[in-house]
Records
---
Amino acid sequence: MSHLSHSSTSVADGTVSSISNIETTSDTAQLLSNEEASTSNYTQLNKSVNFEDSDDDEFHGSHGIRRRQPQQKIEPGSMNVLSAKYESLDYDTCENHLLLDEERKRGYAYIVWKDMARWFIILLIGIITALIAFIIDICIEEFSNIKYRELKKSVDKYVVQDKLYIPYLLWVLSNICIVFIGSMLVAYVEPVAAGSGIPQVKCYLNGVKVPRVVRIKTLIVKAIGVITAVVGGLAGGKEGPMIHSGAVVAAGISQGKSTTFNNDFKIFQYFREDHEKRDFVSAGAAAGVSAAFGAPIGGVLFSLEEGTSFWNQALTWRTFFGTVVSTFTLNCALSAYHGRAGELSFPGLLNLGKMEPFPFQFYELPVFMFFGVVGGLLGALWNYINYRLAVFRIRYIGTPWLRVVEACLVAAASATCGFLMMFLLNDCRPLGEDPTKVPLQLFCADGEYNALAAIWFQTPEASVRSFLHDPIGSYKPWSILTFVVCYFLLSAWTFGLAVSSGLFIPNLLTGAAWGRLLAIVIQAMLPSNTINPAKYALIGAAAQLGGVVRMTISLTVIIIETTGQISNALPIIITLVVAKWTGDFFNEGIYDIHIQLAGVPLLPWEPPPLAHNIYASEVMSHPVFTLRTVENVGHVVELLKLVSYNGFPVVDPPLADDVEVTTYKRLRGMILRSQLIVLIQNKIYNENANTTWSNFNVDMNMFRKEYPRYPSIDKLDVAEWEKTCTIDLRPFMNPSPYTLPHRASLPRLFRLFRALGLRHLPIVNDVNEVVGMVTRKDIARYRVWRHRGHMGMEELILSSEI
Amino acid sequence: MNSYYHVFLLLFFHSNLMKADTLNYVQKHVEVLLSKTGSCYMTPLPQECSSVLNDFADYASNFTKCSILNARPIRICENCIDHYLSFRNKYQELLSTVVNGTSCKSIFMSCDRLDAILEYHDNILSIWDKGHCDACYNWSTDVPKLSNETIHFIELFNGTMACINNTHIDPSLNDTQVICDNCMKSYLKLDNYYKTLSADAIGVDSICMDIVDSMNATRSIWSKTLNCCRIRKTPEVIFLVCTGVISLLPIFYYLVLRYFSPIRDLPNVLKQSRFKQTILRSLGRSN
C-alpha cells in the first residue's frame, strides 16, 4: 500500500481546500489509489488538482478570445468576474426509481389533481400579489398625503415669517426619518431586498439560485422598504419591488410551507422542487407587473422578455390567468378605495391616467426616432452614472451602517433639491386651471400656486401623471429643464442605495419632463401648429425608460395598458426600438450591469457567435469527482466536505486499479449533493454491501421534506462506524443524464444547456467514460461584449469572494 | 307593426259602416294614426305647443343675452337668475304640456338627428352648471334666494373693494402701502372667509363662479396691482446656508469614504481546473 503523504492545506480562496498531492498521476481525481479502498475502509481522497499551479500558457488565448492578464487579485467592482458563490437551480427532472414508483402508484388521477392544484395556486398568486400591491399603493398614497399636507401647512405658516428654514428642515428630517427605517431594514435585516428586485428575479428565472431572494422575510422587508422609500421622498418607484413581491408570493404559496415560520401546511408537496417553483415564480413576477401597472398582457410579456428562459405554452396560459386575476383583484380593491366599488373601467385605475389617442402623421415618425435617440443617449448616460456609483459603493461603502447613512444623505439631498427649486424658480400658475392636490403658494401672488411645488409635493407617480396630462402652458421651460437635470441625477443616484425602490417611475418622470420640454420647443418653432404635449411627454417617458432598461415589447405593452390607448402603439414601439439600439451602442441595460457587477453567471439568449471552434474539452472542468454506483459512506461524506460541487457523476468501479495509467470510468448516472445529504441524513445505507436494499421505505417525499434548504454536510452527524457502511446510489441517481461528447462545440453545448435548463452536463469520451463536467459557470465565462460598434468575446475569471 | 294593422282594419271597418262624412273621418283617423306612430310629422302644430315653443325661444335668447353681458366680470349667477328660472320652467312646461293626448315633447324632440331644441337647451344650461351657479342660491324656498354665504361674501367683497377704492393715495408717489395697511384687515377677512367655503384646496369644485371670480379679481388687484403681498422680504439667509450645508454633506461623505476608508483585502481569483492545464502539467512532469 502506498499511503500517500497528505498535507491538507487550505488554500486562500477558502471553499475548496486542496490536498496537494505530488506523487499521483491520476488525472480523474480518482478517489482511491490503493487496493484497500475497495474493501470500504476509511478512504483517502487523492486529488490531483493543484490550484496553486500556475500555467502561463493558460492566458494566452488560443482562439482569439480576449483574455485577461494573469492576475491573482481582482479589483472589486469589475464586470469581468463571475462569482463562484452562485449556484444553479435543478430544472431537469431526476428520473430515478423513486419517481417511477410514484408514477406507477398515483396514475392519471394524480396528474389531473396536480394540474388543478397548479391553476388554483396561480389564482391565489394573482389575488395575493394584487392585495400586497394594493396595500403598498394605499400606504404610499395615504402617508404621502399626510406628509405633504403637514409640510404645506408649515410652509404657509413660516413663509410669512421669513423662517423658511423651518419647513425645509422639517422636510429634510421627515425624509431622513422615514428612509432611515426602510434603510435599516434593508441593510441589516435583508440586504437582498435592496433595489428594485428585478435583476434578482431575472437571475432566478434564468436558473441561478440567488440566496434568500424568494423568502417571506425578503417580502416583508421589501414591502415596508418600498413604502418608506417613496414616502421618504426618494426618487424611486414602487413597480420593481411589486414585481419582486409577486415572485416571492409565488414561491411561497406554491410550496405550502414556510421555513421561516417553521410551518408546514402539508399541502402541495409535489411542487417542492426547483422546476415547479421556478415556473410559479415566473407567473408570480408577471402577476407583480400586472399589479404594479394594471397591465396583464404586459406582465406576461415582461416575464417572457426579461425573465423566464424556459417557456412553454401551458405556462403562458397559466401566467396570463394569473396576471388577469391580479389586475382584476387590484381594480376591485382600488375602485372600492376610490369610492366607486365595482366600476372596473373607472379611468382613475389607469396607472398613468387615460391617454387620448393622438393622431400622428407619417412625417412625424422621424421625430419619434429622434426622441428615441435622445432617450437612448440619456439612458446610456444614466446607466453609466449609476454604474460608476455602484462600483464606488462596492469598493468603499461596504458596511451596513455606512449604507444607511448614504441613504439618509440622499433623502436629505432630495428634499434640498426640491425645496431649492421651489425657492429659486418662481414659476407661478393661477389656481384652478390645472388639477393640483397641494397648491403651495410660497412666493406667488394670492390665488396662484408654485408649479414646481406642485410637482414636488406629491408622489413621483402623480408627478408623471401631471407631466403627461397637464396643458402645454402649465410649466415654464426653464422649470422643466432644471427639473429634468435634477431628477435625472437624483434617480441615478438613488438606484442602488440600501433601500428597496425601483427605477420605472423616476425614469418615466424624467422622460415625461424632457418630452414635454421638447414639445414646448417644437411649439415655439412651429407656432402655427398646435402641439399636443401629452403625446411628446409620453414618447419621452417611453424613450427614457427604454434607454435605461432596454426592454422593447413588454415596455410598449405596459405603457399602452397603463394609458389605456392601443392606437399609440406604433410611435411607442418605434421610439423604444431606437432607444434600445442607441443605448446598446454605449453600454448594456441597467439590470444587466448590476447582474454583471454581482458576478452572476447569467446565460444570455444566444450562444457566443464564432465560437464553433471551442470544444467541450476546453469548456469543461477537468478532473471530475465521481462516485461509484455502490459507494462507501465515509467516502461520500469526505467528498461532500472537500468540494463544493453539487452534482457527481456516478460511475462503474474501474476494472483495474492501476495508478500509473490515466483512467476514466464509465458513466452510469448523476447524483446531486442534496440527494446525498438526504440519504445520509436518513441513514439509507447498509453495513453489508451485499444486502438487498428493498427493505428501505424511501419515497420522493423524503427528498421534498427538506427542500429547499438542505442541511450542510457539516451539520450531519455521521458516526465513525457508519462510515464503513455502503450506500447504493442506483435507485436515487438520475440514470440517464444528458451528456455530450468531448468534441461538441460551445454553441451546441450552450443550446442544450440553456434550452433544457441543465445544471450539470457530464462530458464523455467515445466509450461513454466521464472526462469532464460542464456547469453554468463554465459556459457563462464566455461572454460577448459589444461597445461602440465593436464586439468580441472575452473569458471571465472566477472568484469565490465577491 | 301591429298598430298599423289595427288602424287599417279600423279604417276598413269604418268605411263600410258610414260613408257620409268621409273627409272628416279620414282626418280624424290620420290623427289616430300619427298618435300611434309618433307625432313628429304632425301638421299643423297644436296651438298650445307652438306658443310654448315660442316663449321658450324668447327665454332662451334672454338668458343667453344676459349670460353674455355678464360674462366679465362674472355675474351670471347673480344677475341672470330670473332668466334662468323662466327658461328652465318653460322647458319643463314644454315637456309636460299635453294637447289632445299628444305631448309637445313628442312633437319637438327626438325626431331627427339634429334635435336642435334639446341641443340648445343643454348648451345654454351648461354654462350655468359649469359655473356651479346653483351653489349661490338657497333652493329650499319657492323662489330661490341668494344663500347666506353668498350674501355674506358679497358684503365682505364690497367692503374690501370700497376700502381699496376709497383710500386716497398720492398719485405722484405711486405708493400703495397706505392701501395695503388700511385694507389688510378686510382683505384677510374676505380671504379667510373664502377659504372656508370649499372643502377642496382649490375651490373649483363647489363654489359658485361669481364668488370665485370676485375673489380672483380681488386677489389679483391686491397682490399684483397694489403689490400688497410682498412675502419675500429677506433673502432667507439661514435657509440658504442650511441647504448649502446639507448639499455639501454627501460630497464630504463620499470624499471621506474614498480617501479614508480602510483598505480591504482584494478578492482572489479562483483557479479553474481545466483539461489543458493537467495535460500541460503531466507533459511537463514527464519531460
Note: Chain A has three domains: 7-63+614-799, 108-338, 365-597.
---
Amino acid sequence: MENGLSLTLDHIFSSLFELSPEVILSIGILLVIVVGLVKKDHAITTLLTLLIFSFSFLFVLSDLDTLQQPLLLFQGMLRKDTFSLYLSALVDAAGILTVLMSWRNQREQSHLQEYYALIITVALGAHLLVMSTNFVMVFLSLELISISSYVLTGFSFDKKGAEGSLKYFLFGSVASAVMLYGISLFYGFTGTLEFLSEEFLKNLAGNITPLFFIAGLMVVSGFLYKLAAAPLHPWAPDVYEASPMPVVAFFSTVPKLAGIGVLTRFAMTLKMADQSYDWQSILSVIAILSLTIGNFSALLQKNTKRLMAYSSIAQAGFLLIGVVAFLPQGIHFMLFYATVYVAMNFVVFIYLQYFEKNGFVTIAEFEGIGKTFLWPCVFLLIGFVSLTGLPPTGGFTAKLFIFSSLWDAYQLSGKNILLWLLIFGLLNTVVSLFYYLRIPYYAFIKNRSINITTNILAFENLFGLVLVLLILLFFFSPGLLMGWINKITFVSVIRFPLSVIG
Amino acid sequence: MPETQTHYTTFFEVCLLLVVLLPLVSFVVSGRIPQRYSWVVTFTAPLFLLISAIGAIYIFTAVWHHQPYIARVNWFTIGGTLVSAGVYLNDIAALMLLVVTFISFLVHLYSTGYMAGDAGLTRYFAMLGFFTFSMLGIVLADSLLLMFVFWELVGFSSYMLIGHWTEKDEAAAAAKKAFLLNRIGDAGFLVGLMLIWAYTGTFDIVQLSDINEVFSWQTAASLCLFAGVIGKSAQFPLLTWLPDAMEGPTPVSALIHAATMVAAGVFLLARVYFLFTPAALDVIAGIGILTALMAALSALVQFDIKKILAYSTISQLGLMVAAIGAGAPAAAILHLFTHAFFKAGLFLGAGIIIHVLHQAQQQAHEHFNVQDIRNLGGLRKKLPFTFCAFVICGCALAGIPFFSGFLSKDAILTAITHWKGDGFSWKWIVLASAFIVSFLTVIYTFRMIWTVFMGEEKRTASLPVVEPPVIMRGPVAILAVCSVWLLVDINPVNFEGWLFNTLHADGNFHIGIISIVSALWVILAVSVAYFMFRSKTIHDDLLLNNFYLDKLYFKIVENPSWRLAVFTDYFDRRWIDGFIHASAYAQVTVSHLVGWFDRAIVDGTVNGIASLSRGVGNFTRSFQGGKIQSYILWAILAIIIFLIWILF
C-alpha cells in the first residue's frame, strides 16, 4: 500500500512535469493578479499576459514536436496526445490574439488584471478540457471555462453586461446540470468515469438501453452548449452583444475549440460503444440545425456583434460536419477548419473593434466608409469572404476539405442524412453570402461622405495584414498546414480494437 | 550559281549590308535623338549616307559586268509553298544602288543647309533615311512581293515628306492626294502580283525570267504591274499628284520626286521587262508618250518654278516609259541615270533660289511668292554660281549636245525610230510626239532659265541676295558636273558608252542618223525659243491646269462618290435605320413581355425564396425574445424532441 501510494505520488509528480503549459498558465493567473495589485500600469499587465500565453504556446509547440505516443496523466484523468496539443496550441494562439486586441482597449478596460487573469483561466480550462478523459475532469474544466466566462461577459460593467452575464450564467447552469445528470447516469451504468477506459466501453456494450441514449444526449448537450451549437445556442447572441469586443472574439474561438475537442473524443467513444443508436445521424441533424438557425437568423441582424454571434453558431455547424464524417481525415479537416476559423474570426473582430471605437456599431452605420477606411474595409472584406468560404481565402479551402470528407463519409455509409447535411451546408454557404457581405456592401457600394482622418499605420492594420496574409496562405498552399495536421493521430479509436467491445 | 560564290567575297556582302542598313541606322538614330540635340542629326545622317554611298561605289564596281549577285533566305511558307526573300543584284540594280545612295547623300548634305533651324529636323532626316532604305529595298529585292513591300514603304515615306510642314494645309492635302493616287496604282500592282502568283506560283524575279514562252495572262499581269508604275511614276492618268507634291521641302522634291522614287516605276519596268508581251508594251509606249506630251505642254505655261520642274519630270518619265514600251529598257535606264543627276541639280538649284530669296525677304521684311517666276528675273548677277549650275543642268534637260541629256534622249529617239518599223503605222505618231516633246522641253527650259536669270531684276531688285553656304553649293556643283556628256561616254555624240552597251546586250539598234537630226532639231528649238519666247509669255488656262485633269477627276470620281455618299446616307437613314428602328420597337415590345415574365414569374420566385428565407430567419430568431427562461425552455424542449425522435 505504501509502495502503491508512493508510486501514485511519483506518477502525479511526473504528470505535473508533463503539464508544463498548464502549469505556466496556472502560475500566470496568480502572477497577473499579484502584479496587477502591485503595479497599476496597464502595459506591464498586458505584456505579462502576452508573455504567459507565448510561453505556453511555445511549450505546447515543442511538446507537439517531441511527443511520440499518447500519455495518460494523473491516472487516467488527462490524456495528452497530438490532438489535444494541437487544439491547445490553437487556444494559446487565440489567447495571444485576444491579448493583442485587448491592448488597444486597455485604457477603457477597467479591472485589467482580473480581466487578463480570467482570460488565462478560460484558456487553462480549454487546455484541460481537450485533454480530459474523465467525466469529473471534463466537468471541472468545463466549469472552469464557464464560470470565468460568466464573469468576463460582465466586464463592460454596465447594465447590459450584467444582464448578459446573468443570462449566460443561468443558461450555463442548466446546461451543466443536464450534462451532470447524464454523467451520473453513465457512472451508474459503468461504474467508472473514465470514458476512454476499456471498462467503460465493456460495461456500456452490454447495457444498451434507451436510458443510455438519454444519458449520452445529455452529456453531448453540455458540449453543444460550449460549442454554441443548436439547440443550445440561444445564449450566444445576448452574451456576445453584452460583452466587450475582445471577449466576444475570445468566446467565439476558445470555448468552441475546447468544446469541439471534447465532443470529438466523446462522440468517437459513443459511436464505438453504441451500435444501436445512430449518433452520426443525430450529430448531422444538430449540424443542420446549427447551420440553418445561425445563417438564417443572421440575415436580419442589425448589430454587428449579434451578427457575429449567429455567424459563430453557423460556423459551429461547419465544425460539426468534420466530426460527423467519423473519419480520420474528417477530424484532420476539422482541425484545419478550426485553424482557419481562428484566423478569419480574429480579422473580422479586430476591425469590428476598430470600427466600434470609431463609432460604427450597427451595420447601417458602415455606409460609405470604404473610401475613408480603405484598408481596414478591404481586410474586413477578406475576412468576411473567408468566413463565407469563397476563394481565394483559406475559408474556401477549409470548407472544401470539410465537404469532401463528408462526401467520402456519404459514399462509405450511404446514409441519406449525410447527403442532406451536404446539401444544407452548401445552401447555407449561399445564404451566408448575403449577410457576411452586407457590411462590405454598405462600406463600399453605398455613398456617404465622412470627415474622419485615418491613420493607415494603425496597429490594427499591421495585425490585420498578418492575419489576412495567413488566410491567403491557407488558400494558396494549404499543404503547409495540412502536412502538420496529418501527423496528428487521433488514437482513441485505435486503442480499443473492436473485438474488445464485441 | 557557283560563280556567284567565288566572285563575291564576304567583304562584298558586308559592304552590301552596310549600304542597305546604314540609311536605316540613320533613320533610327535620327528618330531617337531628342529635340534639343537635333543639330547632331545634321552630322550623323550625312555621315551614314556618305559611308553608304562609298560602299555603293565598291559594290557597283564589283557587280558591273559580272554575274548577278543572288542571296536569299526563306521568308515564310504557305502550305507547302515556300516564299523566299533576298537580294538580286544585277547591272541595273547596281546602277540604281549607286544613283540612289549617291544622290541621297548629296541631298542629305544639301538639306543640312536648307533645313537648318526647322522644327521637325530630326523627323525630316529620319524619314529621309527611311526613304533611302526603302528605295534600296526596291532596288535589291529579288521577288516582286518583297519589292511591293518596299514599294509601299517608299510611298509612305514620300507621304511623310510631302507633308513634312504639317502646319501647311496645302502640304497635308498634297500628301493625302499623293498617297491616295498611289494607292489606286498599287491596287493594280497587287492584282498583278496575284495573277503572277496564280499562274506561276512564284514571285522570284530570277525564276520568272526563266519563262521563255509568252502566255496570254502575261498581258494582263504586266498591265496590272504597269498600273503600279502609273501611280508611282506619275503617268497618265494618275499624274496629277506629282505637281502637288512640290509642297514638300525642295530637297525632297529633288531626291524623291525627281531622281529616285518616281524613277522606281521605270526601274520596275526594266527589271521585269521579260514579263511584258508586245501588246502590253504597245499600251505602255502609248501611255508614256501621251504623258510626256501632256506634261511638256503643261510645263510650258507654269509660273511656279517647282511646278515647271515637276511637269518636266513627268514628261521625262513619260519618255522613259515610252522607251520601255518601244522595247529599249537600256535607253530608258540610261535616261533615268542622266535625268537623276540633272533633274536633282535643277531642283537643288531651284531650292537655292527659294532658300536665299526667303532669307533675303526675312531680312528686308518684304513678302512675295518667291517660287513664282513672274516675280523673278536677272538673278544671274546676284547668284552667278547658281546660274551656271542651273544652265548646265538645264542644257542637259533640254538635250543640248555635249550634255548628258542629249545622249540619253538620243538613245530613246533612236530606239523609237527603230521600233516604229519600216511601214507606216500609229507608231509614227509616237515618234513624232517624242520629237515634239524634245522640242517643247527645250522651250520650257529656256523660258524658265531666261525668266529667272536674264533680263532685269523685278521684285528681287531690292533684296540683299547672296549665294548660299558651300554645303548647299557643293552638291549642286557635283550634280552639274555630272550633267555633261562625260558621264556617258568620251565621245560627246555617241550614247553607246560604257553604260549603254552593258545594259543593251542584244544591241538591236545602233546610233545612226537620228543623232544628227536630233542635234539639229534641238538647235532649231533653241533658236525658236530665243526668238519667239524670250519676251513673250504664253498663257493658257487649259495647260496651266494640266488639261483640267484634276477637275475632271473631281467631276467623274469625286462628284459621283459624293452623290453616292449622299444616297447611301439617305438609304442608311431611311431603310437601314428604319429597319433597325422597327426591330428595336419589336425588341422593346418583346422586352416588356419578358420583363413582365421576369418580374412576375422569375422575380416572384426569387422574392418568394427571399421572403421564405426571411420567414425562416424570423422563425429561428423568434426564440430570441431576450428572456432567458424561454431560452432554457426551448433548449430543453429541443433536447426532448431529439429524444422522442430517436427513441420512438
Note: The first strand of chain B starts at residue 69 and ends at 78.
